[in-house]
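Re: the request from the purification team.
They wanted to know what the chain is likely to look like in 3D before they choose a buffer screen. I agreed to run a prediction and write the result into the notebook, where they can find it.
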Amino acid sequence: MTGKERIKVAMQCGIPDTVPVMCQLSLGHYFMHSGVDPLEIWYTSEGFSAALIALQERYRFDGILVNLHGRPANWRSYIDKITKEGSEKKIWWNNGCYTIFPENDNPHYYQKNGTISFPAFEQIDPKKLFYVDPWQITGVNYPFKWDFDETERPKEDFFPPYITDTLKMVIAKTVSKISVHGEVYSPFSQFLELLNYEEALMALLTDPEKTHACLKALTEGTISLGILEAACGADAILISSAFTGSGFISRELYQDFVLPYEKAVISGIKAVHNIPVYIHTCGGIGDRLDLMTETGTDGIDTLDPPH
């Protein structure tokens, strides 16, 4: 069996010829071990796709998770200069902001005043929400704009054409031998990243009605992106929902603010493309496995052992 066939059989609850293996490596691991320039990995679709494939081949993974979206081809035109401070690079952009780029971890984008900005919950209008990608070049902003684009994109044309470039490149280069999965952030994860975690968690308690309106709007965009990735030929879609384990929110909060929206994302994607959709959650999930199955998920990543 090829890796693609092996994972397909396993995800259909069949018995493959051997246990399939795939792994989401950290960005720092790609920076240090793929042989691709870290700037190319983070800022270009070509670089990240090359790094994904290089380490899939090295470790003989059966699948690849494309967990960064495509990048704009003109990103270099926004650079003012690049300096180095110890082991870190500092990229100065011509808008006055800058990015701290460690050699072994995710880069972070800073405003002119040296802060990572987050909107206050009071500023948020749910009608202006659709999708929030925390790892785009210029970080989180509101109303959300892609990378250095200063214009707000309408919901019917929200995702720029390059957004699926990395996914398409990996699919083309693996020639149907490897299972290639796309990724979307869950509405709950987007809500946390938009406001920063403390502010978002307080909003669950202080204004649940507005929080639900935000999550509903983000669900619409998440479905749209999942359908877009599936249309490119992804073999499965992962919903990244890291902060919904028992170490972060209670079972009751999960049932109220996570379950209905992830259920809607899964059913929304599957209504258009009959492919597996599964969920990633960090931390303990033993107290909510029954609720997770209610989402209609085709799988769970990962199963943490008891402490």
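For the purification team: Strands lie at 63-65, 79-85, 88-93, 98-101, 108-110, 179-185, 236-240, 277-280, 300-301.
Please add any questions underneath this entry.
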